[in-house]
């Protein structure tokens, strides 16, 4: 499963809740339950595919440069349509704020991945009816279930280059001032863009490592409801054993619906709301996926690191991924231990636990690719070629000659405090209640300022979202789980050499020197026994009433702690901004050199904004000399994997339909039955989950939901021979709806006639 992948882990309350996804060991040893998918040497071979995808998650405005390539691959409409994010087909593509999705009917119906609706299932589950296991199908519109107050759909409506307004006149500005001035300018642009318009959200996003900025305007839909998610035996079939591996047999799909007020304007959840009417929606493919055919993915990929330097890649290889792997292993063990004691903790931690398992496997693959796969070394080689090119011309040497060396020096400086910095970041977001208290304290501080001087995320425009995040937190909160996770972070920090311990540790525990588990438990007893922030009503009231006076008068131990930590956290952030400002002065020169070296054809790193990637359906060989994997899997292979026990426990209705060969019109020539998943050579990353896979006509032919373990490090360097995306075939989606779950009303809404 793909999700937005953290590089430096975020610290906001909202992002504490955002972990979700998966990863693995390698295709050679995968699939112990069966599922052979290699092409046989005696099988007739199709002509070799001449197109070799060079990679690239392209901004819509860059698609003009690929027009001829797309035409040669069979694009059946004007490539210029792909340059406009508000036209068809890109106008149908939306963001869920961490996953991608698409409108598929004029009635606001949205298709995305199953793992992208984990929170919707979690929020509506009980130990007696766990939708995470059982799935859900709303028989009528009235049965569609709210995703909660923080559920969102973002529809992009404008995309404007504002680089000059953000960066102009910053030459010579001191390092400790530059980041702040950039933030102030972005904030002013956002304020002017929104201009008090209800339902409009604007962001100013950084591209090319801060060398370019675009203002993105979006309609924010706030009433989003769960319509349909299949049983976990389809939606999560294979679990972490199959995750990031091929062959794959996972029905990773689900449906939501966006609602608005009767006036058509975005509105909070209400029984009186009506379905949103999108300007564009995708139609189910009439030309289905075949080997070698053109496919495109349009979505909101999260983060890649291809424009980072070799020094940054080496630090990730040597330290970052190994550290995070150890952390995730420990967190998973702690959370599973609490879950064994209370089924409610299992539901509360479901989304986060799935995310941790996802990142654990993904980061193992990332580390292996950087180290064993030689990606870090390849990154250094490529950078050496760039430096040689720079030095081959006196004008280039004068302009760019020292930039790589200076950036390497700054990266080296950060290594001196990396353990302390990482532990600091973990502790300040180590508890959901501490994160909530921090939000309350910070909002109180910001409210004392004129609105235009408040920090981003703390302005009047943000207060409704902050309130809804406070409410949404309840679905993820369990007191024993929260305490156990916070305890682990404190224990990890206490084990560091004293010189590497963050100041927040001693502030929380109340002592320096040797810190024992008993010291940590005493501190946690005071916090959790005395707080009422675990109550959603109390938490929301505290946020709404937050002011310098209420914070000072509060007796809640978490609010008191957050107030005590605030100056420490602010100073830490200030030091980070100085380093960021220094790098911000260098990166534009580095990016300018890269773009010149590549003759301008350089995709920016993914940054959660709308992108298009294109390629073909094709298999791959996982290693030198290994057989080539075929690009399609089939339902009979799923049956061979089925054991009746998780994660290989397909529902009986699916097994019966397969046994009876009730395939209807959903068969594929390549497999002679219903296809499940297919491979393509597309360039994707976390955040692409749920992205529409489009055919040459712009029709919906599948949904991307994963990548392959051998190519995890392609986030750093794209590797054409082995980088593959994994998609659920739209024929399998329709077959499950028709033959397994009886979702005839949704098929009809999609323009498909039920036939089984």
Automatic annotation (TrEMBL):
InterPro entries linked: Pep_S46 (IPR019500), Peptidase_S1_PA (IPR009003)
SUPFAM superfamilies cross-referenced by the UniProt entry: Trypsin-like serine proteases (SSF50494)
Signal peptide range: 1-26
Protein name, entry field: Dipeptidyl-peptidase
Transmembrane segments: none
EC number: 3.4.14.-
Record keywords: Aminopeptidase, Hydrolase, Protease, Serine protease, Signal
Role of this protein: Catalyzes the removal of dipeptides from the N-terminus of oligopeptides.
Record has Transmembrane helix as a keyword: no
Record-stated family: Belongs to the peptidase S46 family.
Domain of life of the organism encoding this protein: Bacteria
Pfam family, one: Peptidase_S46
């Amino acid at each position: 499963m793909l999700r937005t992948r953290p590089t430096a882990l975020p610290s906001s309350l909202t992002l504490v809740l955002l972990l979700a996804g998966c990863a693995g060991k390698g295709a050679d040893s995968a699939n112990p339950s069966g599922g052979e998918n290699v092409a046989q040497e005696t099988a007739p071979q199709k002509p070799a595919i001449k197109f070799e995808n060079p990679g690239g998650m392209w901004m819509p405005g860059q698609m003009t440069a690929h027009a001829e390539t797309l035409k040669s691959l069979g694009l059946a409409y004007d490539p210029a349509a792909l340059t406009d994010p508000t036209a068809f087909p890109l106008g149908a593509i939306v963001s869920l704020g961490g996953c991608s999705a698409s409108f598929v009917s004029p009635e606001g119906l949205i298709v995305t991945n199953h793992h992208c609706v984990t929170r919707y299932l979690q929020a509506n589950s009980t130990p007696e009816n766990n939708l995470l296991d059982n799935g859900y199908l709303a028989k009528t519109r009235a049965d569609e279930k709210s995703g909660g107050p923080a559920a969102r759909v973002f529809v992009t409506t404008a995309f404007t280059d504002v680089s000059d307004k953000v960066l102009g006149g910053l030459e010579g500005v001191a390092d400790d001032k530059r980041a702040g001035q950039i933030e102030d300018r972005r904030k002013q642009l956002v304020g002017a863009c929104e201009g008090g318009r209800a339902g409009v959200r604007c962001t100013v996003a950084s591209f090319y490592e801060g060398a370019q900025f675009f203002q993105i305007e979006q309609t924010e839909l706030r009433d989003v409801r769960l319509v349909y998610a299949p049983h976990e035996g389809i939606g999560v079939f294979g679990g972490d054993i199959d995750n990031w591996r091929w062959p794959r047999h996972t029905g990773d799909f689900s449906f939501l619906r966006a609602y608005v007020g009767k006036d058509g304007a975005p509105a909070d959840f209400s029984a009186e709301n009506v379905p949103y009417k999108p300007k564009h929606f995708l139609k189910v493919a009439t030309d289905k996926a075949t080997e070698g055919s053109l496919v495109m993915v349009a979505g909101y990929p999260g983060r890649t690191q291809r424009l980072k330097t070799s020094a940054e890649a080496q630090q990730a290889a040597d330290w970052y991924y190994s550290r995070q792997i150890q952390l995730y292993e420990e967190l998973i063990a702690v959370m599973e231990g609490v879950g064994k004691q209370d089924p409610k903790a299992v539901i509360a931690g479901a989304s986060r636990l799935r995310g941790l398992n996802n990142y654990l496997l993904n980061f193992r693959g990332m580390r292996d690719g950087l180290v064993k796969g030689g990606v870090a070394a390849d990154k250094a080689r490529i950078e050496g070629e760039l430096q040689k090119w720079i030095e081959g011309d006196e004008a280039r040497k004068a302009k760019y000659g020292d930039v790589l060396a200076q950036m390497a020096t700054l990266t080296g400086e950060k290594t001196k405090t990396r353990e302390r910095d990482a532990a600091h970041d973990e502790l300040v977001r180590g508890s959901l209640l501490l994160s909530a208290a921090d939000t309350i304290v910070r909002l109180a501080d910001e409210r004392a300022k004129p609105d235009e001087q408040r920090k981003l995320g703390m302005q009047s425009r943000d207060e409704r979202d902050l309130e809804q995040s406070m409410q949404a937190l309840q679905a993820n909160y369990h007191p024993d789980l929260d305490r156990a996770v916070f305890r682990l972070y404190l224990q990890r920090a206490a084990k560091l050499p004293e010189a590497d311990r963050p100041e927040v540790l001693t502030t929380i525990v109340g002592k320096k020197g040797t810190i024992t588990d008993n010291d940590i438990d005493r501190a946690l007893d005071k916090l959790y026994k005395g707080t009422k922030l675990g109550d959603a009503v109390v938490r929301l009231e505290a946020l709404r009433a937050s002011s310098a006076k209420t914070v000072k008068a509060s007796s809640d131990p978490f609010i008191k702690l957050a107030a005590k930590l605030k100056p420490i956290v602010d100073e830490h952030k200030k030091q980070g901004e100085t380093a960021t400002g220094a790098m911000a002065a260098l990166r534009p020169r580095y990016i300018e050199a890269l773009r010149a070296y590549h003759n301008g054809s350089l995709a920016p790193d993914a940054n959660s904004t709308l992108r298009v990637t294109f390629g073909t359906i094709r298999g791959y060989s996982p290693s030198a000399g290994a057989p080539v994997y075929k690009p399609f899997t089939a339902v009979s292979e799923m049956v061979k994997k089925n054991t009746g026990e998780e994660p290989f426990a397909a529902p009986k209705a699916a097994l019966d339909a397969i046994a009876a060969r009730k395939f209807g019109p959903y068969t594929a020539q390549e497999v002679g039955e219903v296809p499940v998943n297919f491979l393509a050579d597309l360039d994707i990353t976390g955040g692409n989950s749920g992205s529409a896979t489009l055919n040459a006509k712009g029709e919906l032919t599948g949904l991307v939901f994963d990548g392959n373990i051998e190519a995890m490090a392609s986030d750093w360097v794209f590797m054409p021979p082995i980088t593959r995306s994994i998609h659920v075939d739209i024929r399998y989606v329709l077959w499950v709806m028709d033959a397994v779950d009886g979702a005839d009303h949704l098929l009809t809404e999609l323009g498909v006639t039920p036939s089984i």
